[in-house]
Amino acid sequence: MKDQSYDNNKLIDIKYDMNKRRIRDFIGIKLMQIITIIVSTLFVLIFLILFSKSIPIFENVSLTDLLFSSLWNPEKGEFGLLPIITGTIFVTGISLFIAVPISLLSAVYISEYAHKKTRSFLRPFIDVLAGVPSVVYGLCAFLFLVPLVKDFIAPRFGIESTGLCIFTASITLSVMVFPIIISLCVESFRSIPIELKEASLSVGATKWETIRKVILRASAPSVITAVLLGFGRAFGETIAVNMVVGGIPKIPSTLFHPGQTLASLIASAYGEMMSIPLYESALMFVALILFVVVLIFNLLGIILLRKVKRRWNY
Amino acid sequence: MISSLIIVIGSLVIIVGLIVFNGASSISLEMITQTPSGGYYLGKGGGILNAILGSLFLALPATAFAYLIGLGIALFLQRDFSHPKISIFIRLSLDILWGIPSIIYGIFCLMIMMLLGIGTSLIAGIVALTLLELPIITRYMDESIKMVPHGLKEGAYSLGSTRFETALKVVRKQAAPGIMAGVLLGLGRGIGDAASILFTAGFSDNIPESIFDSTASLPTMIYHLYSSPIPLVRERAYAAAFILLLIVFSISILSRYLSRKLTKHVIV
Fold this sequence. Notes:
The complex is a heterodimer. Chain A is mainly α. Chain A folds into 2 domains: 2-40; 60-312, MetI-like fold (Orthogonal Bundle), CATH 1.10.3720. Helices cover 78% and strands 1% of the residues of chain A. The radius of gyration of chain A is 27 Å and the shape is flat. The longest helix of chain B is centred in the last third of the chain and has 32 residues, at 231-262. Chain B has a single domain (9-265), classed as MetI-like fold, CATH 1.10.3720.10. The chains are: A mainly alpha, B mainly alpha. Chains A and B meet through α1, α2, α5, α6 and α7 of A and α1, α3, α4, α5 and α6 of B.
């Protein structure tokens, strides 16, 4: 009889314990679910807030004026973003124009030519380059590139420049984009089935022909993805560009003249924006453009990369 | 091909060389043990202790929050909890968040701060950095949790553990090396980012005493010092950059060391 009651108690204990664990399980999973839902709708929330904050500028200035007028004088109520948009396109375009060939060739070398030991030595190098904070890039560009452009490169073209210009910003950005493009490209080159390369080599193609016609072609979508992601980084980079671009919202007549980019404009204007009517709203609109453009390019890149991953199963 | 590789490696060497060469020479004990005294930005005495501590106060809690939130999401993305089709969408939205420029996070937090009526503060900076680090840490954790063999989870289930217990005690330990790598990568990114904390954490010469105080950080300190016309003050920007680079590199070395050490607990 005594034994029986002891057993019952134990059973109740176990049952109680199990209930507690079930409740904990339920709460834990619900919590994870809620967090996941909040975070995965975060970008919608960011979009909505930026959009609602930029409504006042839409009501006061027409969209064509905003995008295509070249007068940027917030004090006088003129919010033409054209000079800043041109500046951004120049800086981003030139930086990719420099970065893409250099990183592609480096990636080809690392994945196809380099010795195994060299490769395992080079990869951490690229990771380190990716980990350098952007403010350090900006500082180095300010210290090294700005005098170089001022004293050597700009005079070569017969232009007087302070060194703080579109060209300097583009070079800085291209160095920042290197690691992104290189690491993605190396990963995709390495994942191409070796049979493809061997088939090409066995019909008499040289190594370079194989690289050009087989490897680059087969991994073209990933290369495009890498470029798109690099574009996103360059387009949204704020501090490093802000430090070397000059910060003058005028359409630059040469590459050695100062300009302004969208992201950098936000950083330099935040201090004064509270005092001028509509200025804050205009900056929110700038942030909205930045957000939407980066979103579209990244989305394209990610979707492309997923397709490739499914194709080669990596 | 080799020449382009030389350009890439060379640019890294130039960056590290410039910072070490210029920074190491102007670094002193005074610099890392004192806060800026009056006239510091004009070349008078003091140090950047406020920025060093500020950076740590911002990045460490932000990484801890991002780790907790990210762990929840990454565990939830397993097949055991959510349908793979839903997981694809969640991963997509995380990838989108990863690509958003940090200045947007800064602006977003600024808007929320204005709604709540708080000024530049430590807490706002922490929130901005958490948002910035979250997608990075979560995606890394997710990739490593994906690799956990299903048999291991089934073993835990068959012993009577609930799904939550399995996720937290078995899966998390098995994926520990990848999780650690992700967390430290996020920390490195967070400690070096300036754009997101420029408006949110503000700037201050003092070490923050509460979470509602503004605080300086190494990146914003560099941003304030670099363009000074006084050479001595510019030297200080290089010294601050040297400290920042030192922190970032030691985080990445630590990450390699720790993930090797944590591999011990992994059942193959």
